Amino acid sequence: MKQARPLTITGGRLVTPDSVMDGAIRVVEGRIAALGKVTAQDGDEVIDAKGQLIAPGLVDFGVFAIDKPAFHFGGITRAALMPDQSPPLDLPSRVSYIAKSGKPDLWVHPLAAATCELRGSELAEIGLMKDAGARGVATGRKWIADTGVMLRLLQYAAMLDLVVVTHAEDAALVGDASATAGEMATRLGLPSAPAEAEALAVARDIALAEMSGARVHIRQITTRAALDLVRAAKGRGVAVTAGVTPAHFMLSDLATAEFRTFARLSPPLRSEADRQAVIEAIADGTIDVVASGHDPRGPEDKRLPFADAAPGMAGAETLLAMTLGLVRDGVIDLARAFALLAGNPARLLGINAGVLAEGYEADLCIVNPDKPWVVDSAKMAAVAGNTPFDKQPTQGRATTVIKGGVIL
Amino acid sequence: MTATFNQPDPGRFPAGRRAFPHRDLLGISQLERHEILYLLAEAQQWVEFNHQSKKRSKALRGLTVINAFFENSTRTLLSFEIAGKRLGADVVNMHAAQSSVKKGETLIDTAITLNAMRADAIVIRHGSSGAVELIASKVDCPVLNAGDGQHEHPTQALLDALALRSALAERGQASEDFTGLKVTICGDILHSRVARSNILCLTALGATVRLCAPPALMPQGVEAMGAVPYHDFDAALEGTDVAMMLRLQTERMSGQFIPSAREYHRLYGLTQGRLERCAPDALVMHPGPMNRGVEIDSDVADMLDRSIITRQVEMGVAVRMAALDVLTRKTRGVAGWNDGEWQ
What integer best gives the mean pLDDT of chain B? Predict the structure, then answer.
């Protein structure tokens, strides 16, 4: 699918890295040709945005499934796929297959498995996988417990200039826990681990990042103690970045009441104090990325006793609306919201995307930031409806999604 | 005599509300204080019934009760089986070891299968917290929780309360609830559903609950449930009216959570000497089975005037009879129970 004729979107509010301004955008041959005070030319297809936002398509950093209907619903035009597939992305052939799998209407950027079969012991062929299209390396759902392996991985990734995406939970402390230690886990009788398991893992990985010079992206940081460590490390100039999913700034462990398995996540939902700390860290810039962690799970994985259920949520459809909620609450402005959702993830992946700039691929979404809707797990576009936000009223929706100049 | 216990005493319950509006007995956390007292009052009448030589009621005649035990149990299963049979129900036991659960059938499918057999009540024990609630949401009949993971074991807490109440009554300290009573629960609190249900039940009835365990076996946030945590057993026992000892699983005594059984006994074993720190005539309880010489010494467990451990077992049958009776009243069309919606 190629763009047939030039497209001009008029009457919108352009979301650029610095500001939001009234204007238009013109797209020719799949790329952004001009933006700002632009007028449509003869023969252009014209869309009137009617005052809606013209924003970069979302770059979803760290999903577990390629789920086009959900991504299109959510305004996501590119997604970085975690290596936790079946089989895992630990061979160049698998990476190159995945890198082409979504085109043309969704670009998937594979994250190579850091270790063979994600076991955390032997390094996978990261260099070959980079050549095959991998845009980063990921430890997968788990933390690499062996510090020696982790150091060698970071040194190797630094040499290849690939970002290393890590999961931050001290494996020995967490064990088979499915909840954060605290009143809720105690009342429900769930196996739990202290929230400090995250800070322990982050402290080690920051130390190793400093030693190796590698770029480390901690995919989800969910506790105050770990965020403090990242804040301090950034202050020292360490190349560490942090992400989070909306679940951890919207919900606390209270959402697990009545053993709701849609709220069974990894890392688990935290205390209200930690939820507040995540919001502060989004506001002050400690957190760089908000991603969906999209992980659709059907009843065979979720309709089980809480501890036996698989962790994960279908998040692609709610990512934009929940993040726009932070704008409405005054935590961040619109430009920063799209930096978290698109600009920063693209920069970490080393791709020319995620911002509105001349010459870039025309990955766009037109967003009505106020449009009200209600999340309904029974009517999701995703392959499964495991959202912890079921029945929650929210606002903000991508009304038109454009990938490479083509309206989807 | 059954006719008298179908109608609650109107003075003790909120006006216009049913004495026990729940379809299931999933946990103490779902119960109001007056609902706990109602179940205890019902159970008290079955205690007297069980003292007769002919212990066979016709209350549940023609009804099928399935005991679905996904986790090994001897005592609780036996207690539920006897309770069902004394009420005249047809009781069927399903053991996980013999079931298709081992063949990979999901819990939901098992629940749907049990439901299709048209049981009138299902008693469930399962190793995962929340599993009984999950099954209850998929079946059409009353469900009784006989223990789910580390979550709740409501009939145990009710039988403990009934045993305590009857022991106090024999001493001339008869009282409906436990206001002013100090109870110390000691042992593996972290992994114990008995402890959780007892904290909720005892505090609802007005008792002060102290918990005692080494740090590795004490869960976080128990203060929010109204209990006071201790690590020092002597301090926890000081002046207490009841010492409730919990069983320590053998696999947790060998270095994972505590160094050894003998060290545990030194620090947390209930001995004659330690009993003297409690209030005079303090009562000793244990949900069983006991590790004699580990959490409790034999001479303490067997003290006729202090230990009410066998009384707990006796009350267990009565409490389970009461629970089965109350929960099946709507099905049986008992007057006053066959209308309205479940809560």
Answer: 91
